Predict the structure.
Amino acid sequence: MSRKFRVLINSTYCKACELCVAVCPKSVLAVGRSTTSKGIHCAETVAPDSCIGCKACSDICPEAAIEIRVEGDGQDRK
Amino acid sequence: MEEKAIYSRPDSLTDRPMHYCPGCGHGTVHKLIAEVVDEMGIREKTIGIAPVGCAVLAYFYMRFDVMEAAHGRTPAVATGVKRVLPDKLVFSYQGDGDLAAIGMAETIHAANRGENISVVFINNAVYGMTGGQMAPTTLTGQKTATSPGGRLVETMGPPVKMCELLNTLDRPYHIERVALDGPAGVRKARKAIRTIFEAQRDGKGYGFVEVLSPCPTYQRCTPVESLKFVGNDMAATFPLGLFRRGGERIDA
């Protein structure tokens, strides 16, 4: 059974640099259409089921704004 | 079903949003240092020395002790702190203006003494805080506020290569250059920072990691283009890799 990942982007930290969107190999992320209170288009998850949990987005994010969660205890994948 | 985080914001970063421009490498390296401090479980033992430059406010973002040093004097302050508190992990965090211009003397002499400190050097080939002027590490031909026609070797000299320069000294323990040109580069940078922190913990001596870093604002491109500038243009001038491991020079 394929495991299900969830990418959470904290709009408090996101500055819409779009690096996460550029490096995601599965096009899970995109620039958001709505504008935050800071006037930016925060990245958002558009294809959550495609996420493979590679952590490319959380590694490249300069703001540490991304959290990745997995169903279950995540024991076999750090 | 129950969920578990496989990645979350490191505990050693404070909750305060960073002031850096979108896509800036300083945020990435702050994050990596915080991750390594968390992984090694040394938050109560870590003391960072912040530079003058864009990262002058680094102490706002790190949830451990951080001191501020006068411009370029970070290695001297780190030396003093480490000698007085030898059981602490002391690292200096410096940009290219702080380390390779005004702080060149302190940098070379700390390395020459083989001080048991760790130096994280952010090289983005330009002065960020003061408005995009030419740095010692600005690439040949690169346009900046003070080299509007591009850096000319004839009048401004070629870019200073710090890893190569420090590798001529006998005492450094570890010298490595990495680049924030993508997720793989970020992981290599994390590993390199961990290597010099562990070397210091084990009393091995001076560790130096140069991180080629994006500065989209003054590299005059988008954050995504900035990754390519770092990975292609900068890495062509500043070759990536290990220069010194375990105190031994590594032949290119």
